[in-house]
Design brief:
Blueprint: H1 8-14, E1 25-28, E2 31-34, H2 40-60, E3 64-67, E4 70-74, E5 79-81, E6 85-88, E7 101-102, E8 108-112, H3 116-132, E9 136-141, E10 146-151, E11 156-159, E12 164-166, E13 186-188, H4 189-192, H5 199-205
Parallel strand pairs: 4-7, 8-9
Antiparallel strand pairs: 1-2, 3-6, 4-5, 6-8, 9-10, 10-11, 12-13
Length: about 210
């Protein structure tokens, strides 16, 4: 039986017993919560972003990315948030890859605000990441076709479709890492929202 109030460790142990196999679940103040399933636009963003990150990481071999990993954002009561992407730059490479939940603080988190509910929750989520020591939190909005970049220096930069996201800003720093985060990573904002080629014929058939 799923406990109504649980710790992050209990949540990790029981997540797969939640509805939908816990796929879209988080822990908010000790209570398991089922989020709205992500939209097709959400999936497109994650697909495009993961491809770009994989190419950059292969060339740089610095850090690694995890997808939908639970991040412990608060204790007593425990909160576990699952951003679309968490980027780690400290510890042994791939340490967190097989974990359900981690207490290790990622240097960068990337969220996708693909629904009204997800968008409304973003300010509180960004604050939780900042309080937890995350240096850069990036929010990609497939509806508005914008990217908001929040840094621990309390700076906000918003990019539109005509812009290019460029990593490595000098103030994007993380303890124990000796260079600005995401140095050398670039992607056109418009390319984040591209639909895969296989989707077009399906859409015409529908």
């Amino acid at each position: 039986m799923i406990k109504r109030i649980m710790t992050a460790e209990e949540f990790a142990a029981q997540k797969y017993d939640l509805p939908e196999g816990g796929r879209w679940s988080e822990l908010i103040a000790g209570e398991p919560v089922i989020l709205d399933p992500p939209s097709d636009a959400h999936g497109n963003v994650v697909l495009n972003l993961s491809k770009a990150l994989a190419t950059w990481l292969e060339a740089r071999a610095i850090g690694y990315a995890c997808f939908e990993l639970g991040i412990v954002a608060q204790r007593a009561p425990d909160t576990v948030l699952c951003p679309a992407v968490s980027y780690f730059v400290t510890g042994n490479r791939w340490d967190e890859l097989d974990n359900v939940v981690t207490q290790t603080v990622p240097a960068v988190v990337i969220e996708v605000a693909s629904s009204a509910a997800r968008s409304r929750a973003m300010p509180a989520r960004i604050e939780s990441y900042r309080d937890g020591g995350v240096s850069v939190a990036i929010v990609i909005d497939p509806v508005e076709k914008k990217v908001a970049v929040h840094s621990h220096a309390d700076q906000l930069k918003v990019l539109g479709q005509d812009d290019v996201f460029v990593g490595g800003a000098d103030h994007w720093r993380f303890a124990g890492f000796n260079e600005p985060l995401l140095t050398g990573f670039e992607i056109s904002v418009a390319n984040l929202f591209l639909q895969p080629e296989w989707w077009e014929p399906r859409r015409r058939r529908d």
